[in-house]
């Protein structure tokens, strides 16, 4: 098969960073080519070169046998290249049709012909099986729908190369299925597709071939991805063997520390109760809209409670502002860390130290700087954050490394007693996931309570001592680790119509204050599957092991 797209010794350097260091590989027409690598390995930088956003510092890019030097995104588009970026690029105030035909709107008597534009785009949307009105405003659409608009745009520009940068990180299961169908159709149509993802399961499902990056270098290209065992992919990516990614450790049973009694508020359905024991990792699982994040926001005082009490070590946590929760030792690392937490032009060290800075003024400015520098360096090392140094502006880090910095900020919170992590590993590579799991277990071993909300079922099963399942705004059951199998958790999480008759051993979590003790036994029949089966928001209707 002739190479349609060829990277030949491509280099890209930033101050202190060799983002790409002599990368060569080819992708073919009619192929989905996966790009794999840890956060900061250079994958997005390569797409930015392909899309004309960055000029390479060395090497050649060939498209259909012809050497290309793009000076702008426009030139890349004209050469038939479309990039579906992590942060989608669209004009929110314009309609679907106007966005799809941006810069190429049909005219009639010198005026924009909106009717014709809508008709053309409606036909194309129907042809690719996307149910979307061409007159809808982009601002009113979901991320998934905006992504479909981008894909429609790429198809209408007749792009022969379409590259996706982590397209499924914010999609539900159903939306992901639609995306996969489109990608497969585009492949069958003979286009060249580049696909970046940290989710091995979906890479196995979609990709014909793959190239693995590490630290700006190409490690290997596999022409037949299906032949490569997953352990090999992981060790090539992270440069070390990872046998037990979840790093689960048995811990002695301790007393209940956090008691949530009848907590109620706008986005949960009725009073909710549960306990967390010292040293326990409690997983929260549920479908999209199950109310997990909302319940935690109530607990953290980010939303207003309409009833209930929260006791930490027997002392009530005042219902007020998040500051009251933090003062009591409760910390919430939110789901949309980037939007809620990033100070883009501040340094890595400043971003890590924000909350510490607020609390600790001992010893004057000089000592404070020293403490902050030491703390930043400690977390850069512990989480393996890829940055030239702690002074680097956070906006210059790769997406996954920005996530790690924000996570470090919450982990560094002094006086931590209850750590709540909402989707802590979204967008994070497999090696870094392992680092985060290790830290979660370290925090629990110190006697803290750790609550982890995750839509990745294998992750919940892999790291939790106990799992609470929510459905439609209410806690509908809990399972100790020994009984928390994929089937049982999904049985609780799925709507009634899809639920087979309950089996013995599932505790309804009504009187949660007297919930069963922490299960510390090792997994039996429900041994956790390997990581990264990203069921994301809506697990499949049929509970299955979905691990490659
Ligand atoms: N504009 C920039 N200035 C300085 N450094 C940069 C810039 N863009 C990227 N980098 C650095 O280049 C390296 C590669 O980043 P890149 O975004 O390509 O990684 P990635 O493999 O896509 O990671 P992720 O999986 O986290 O998205 C990182 O160390 C990043 O910090």
TrEMBL record:
It is found in: Cell membrane. Gene3D superfamilies: P-loop containing nucleotide triphosphate hydrolases (3.40.50.300). Residues 5-240, 240-497 form the ABC transporter domain. Residues 515-548 are annotated as: Disordered. Coiled coil: none annotated. GO terms for cellular component: plasma membrane. SMART domains: AAA (SM00382). It is a peripheral membrane protein. Keywords: ATP-binding, Cell inner membrane, Cell membrane, Membrane, Nucleotide-binding, Repeat, Sugar transport, Translocase, Transport. Residues 515-539 have a biased composition (Low complexity). One of its GO terms (molecular function) is ATP hydrolysis activity. Signal peptide: none annotated. It comes from the Bacteria. The keyword Membrane applies. Its main location: membrane. This is L-arabinose ABC transporter ATP-binding protein AraG. The lineage of its organism: Bacteria, Pseudomonadati, Pseudomonadota, Betaproteobacteria, Burkholderiales.
């Amino acid at each position: 098969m002739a190479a349609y797209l060829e990277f030949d010794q491509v280099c890209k350097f930033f101050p202190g960073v060799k983002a790409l260091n002599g990368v060569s590989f080819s992708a073919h027409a009619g192929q989905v080519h996966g790009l794999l690598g840890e956060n900061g390995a250079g994958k997005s930088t390569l797409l930015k070169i392909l899309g004309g956003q960055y000029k390479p510092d060395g090497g050649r890019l060939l498209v259909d046998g012809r050497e290309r030097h793009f000076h702008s995104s426009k030139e890349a588009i004209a050469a038939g290249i479309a990039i579906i970026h992590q942060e989608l690029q669209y004009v929110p105030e314009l309609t679907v049709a106007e966005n799809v035909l941006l810069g190429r709107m049909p005219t009639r008597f010198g005026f924009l012909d909106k009717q014709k534009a809508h008709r053309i785009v409606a036909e194309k949307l129907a042809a690719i099986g996307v149910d979307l009105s061409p007159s809808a405003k982009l601002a009113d659409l979901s991320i998934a729908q905006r992504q479909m608009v981008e894909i429609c745009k790429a198809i209408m520009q007749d792009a022969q190369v379409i590259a996706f940068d982590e397209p499924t990180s914010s999609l539900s299961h159903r939306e992901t299925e639609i995306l996969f169908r489109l990608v497969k159709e585009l492949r069958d149509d003979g286009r060249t597709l580049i696909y970046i993802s940290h989710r091995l399961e979906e890479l196995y499902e979609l990709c014909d071939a793959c190239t693995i990056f590490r630290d700006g270098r190409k490690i290997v290209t596999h022409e037949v991805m299906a032949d490569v065992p997953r352990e090999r992919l992981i060790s090539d990516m992270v440069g070390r063997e990872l046998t037990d990614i979840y790093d689960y450790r048995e811990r002695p049973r301790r007393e209940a520390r956090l008691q949530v009694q009848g907590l109620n508020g706008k986005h949960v359905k009725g009073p909710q109760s549960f306990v967390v024991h010292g040293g326990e990792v409690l997983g929260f699982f549920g479908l999209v809209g199950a109310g997990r994040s909302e319940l935690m926001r109530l607990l953290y005082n980010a939303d207003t409670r309409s009833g209930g009490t929260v006791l930490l070590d027997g002392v009530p946590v005042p219902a007020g502002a998040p500051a009251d929760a933090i003062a009591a030792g409760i910390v919430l690392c939110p789901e949309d860390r980037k939007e809620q937490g990033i100070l883009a032009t501040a340094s890595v060290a400043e971003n890590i130290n924000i909350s510490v800075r607020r609390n600790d003024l001992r010893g004057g400015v000089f000592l404070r700087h020293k403490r902050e520098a030491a703390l930043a360096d400690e977390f850069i090392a512990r989480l393996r954050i890829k940055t030239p140094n702690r002074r680097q502006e956070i906006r210059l880090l790769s997406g996954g490394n920005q996530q790690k910095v924000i996570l470090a900020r919450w982990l560094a919170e002094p006086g931590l007693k209850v750590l709540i992590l909402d989707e802590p590993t979204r967008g994070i590579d497999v090696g870094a996931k392992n680092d985060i799991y290790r830290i979660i277990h370290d925090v629990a071993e110190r006697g803290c309570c750790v609550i982890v909300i995750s839509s990745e079922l294998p992750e919940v099963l892999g790291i939790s001592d106990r799992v609470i399942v929510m459905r439609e705004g209410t806690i509908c059951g809990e399972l100790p680790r020994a009984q928390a199998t994929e089937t049982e958790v999904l049985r609780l999480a799925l709507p009634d119509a899809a639920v087979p008759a309950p089996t013995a051993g599932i505790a309804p979590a009504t009187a949660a204050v007297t919930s069963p003790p922490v299960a510390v036994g090792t997994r039996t029949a429900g041994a956790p599957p390997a990581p990264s089966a990203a069921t994301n928001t809506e697990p499949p209707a049929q509970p299955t092991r979905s691990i490659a």
